[in-house]
Design brief:
The chain is mainly alpha-helical. It folds into two domains: 63 residues, no CATH class; 36 residues. The protein contains six helices and no strands. Helix 2 packs parallel to helix 4. The C terminus is likely disordered.
């Protein structure tokens, strides 16, 4: 949609904002296109997601906020789980079942669709 409306480059920060003294008409055109791109982005997200956005100045800033908002965080959970696993050390006399119970609970509660629990 952004490419079809010819504003995709604005959302990627690829179109430089003209200097208002050197090119006032270029700045007006840039602002109009950038605002249009921002409108397209914000009018196609849910109201609840919209509440999580700070007031972006440009469509590029809006795009970066949306990426951060929708970014998949599953890899962070897996890394944390792996680090916790490597830090576990049982000592003589520990009940292994009781010792590993929090780890099993964590693995079952943190799995994501596409990565089935064992």
């Amino acid at each position: 949609m952004l490419q079809l409306c010819r504003v995709y480059d604005y959302t990627q920060g690829l179109v430089e904002k003209p200097n208002s003294l050197m090119d006032p008409q270029g700045l007006r055109n840039w602002s109009k296109n950038d605002n249009y791109a921002k409108h397209l982005l914000t009018s196609n997200i849910s109201t609840t997601k919209m509440m999580n956005l700070r007031q972006p100045g440009t469509s590029f800033e809006c795009w970066k906020q949306l990426i951060a908002l929708y970014e998949n965080k599953t890899h962070d959970t897996i890394i944390t789980f792996t680090c916790n696993l490597h830090q576990l050390c049982a000592v003589d006399g520990d009940d292994i079942e009781v010792f590993t119970l929090p780890l099993v609970f964590h693995s079952e509660s943190s799995w994501s669709p596409g990565i089935p629990p064992d």
